[in-house]
């Protein structure tokens, strides 16, 4: 639907309507042209609002986070979100042409965020970043420390090369090389040579993230016996769509490719072994990793504000050891480990994310580690919970179909 002109126009109208509920546009340079960066602001106005930066970098803010903004407003939270340059309402320059990829960089996005705060009359804010958004949040803290009241780093990234080594070791130790029925089932599937390696990596990590180890074991066992093919293909398709597909006003990875590959190394140095986090990306780009704009491990020990670092126990994208390292580098950081939660609480458990925000506003970030189980047990809502339920149901149905 979304690739048809009529559908795109409808999505544009929906996005413009959402923008009309509160926010604005600020004109910014983009190479030889300019772009009007859209931003949204909802809820009652306060002196220190919350700025939320989602992941991606191709993920939009306007349409995907309508429910988050409504729930935040119901809780009396003043919430600001910027539409990232190259995406959604900030995708085209003032002449209606797609932004050049060369103008979509991390540094430009950080400068855009500062301009948005200027335009909205905001001097200081709580900065909440999720996944890729944590890199922007930390970069914003490096460049504009006086504007940060406190910070939440949800499923954070830190350093391209170090994070890659950590993620490989964590994934393989947990799901491939270690003891127990899940690694044994995955090893057997790998040795059967019946599934594509990149496809295996996406399906295994996605199902573990959304539904846990027992559901993953059942799916892998069924697939090894030649069953559960339908649900396997559908999950694999979703993974491919996230990398090389385009869903207007939701996920648009094309114009942010310079950030993904040249600056943050999403396809950097694949090693050819199972469960490699860069394998699927490397199959879809020729871009070379040039280098991240700031080496954050050297920069973030200078952060002086309260910081909550959220680590989901089932996160295989930015696994818990990365969060623990970041929490150890920031002087006023509190590590919030959420049991049974996957990557990005903002997307997988928004009530927990909003509860963390409330604690930051109340000056109680040091209490958050003791509340981890309570936060994780809050009722979950959102599309990822629907997908997880469909995965479970699909395994049950597909495993019973005739071969």
From TrEMBL:
Pfam families: Abhydrolase_1. It comes from the Bacteria. Residues 49-160 form the AB hydrolase-1 domain. InterPro entries: AB_hydrolase (IPR050471), AB_hydrolase_1 (IPR000073), AB_hydrolase_fold (IPR029058). One of its GO terms (molecular function) is hydrolase activity. The keyword Oxidoreductase does not apply. Keywords: Hydrolase. This is Alpha/beta hydrolase. It comes from Gordonia crocea.
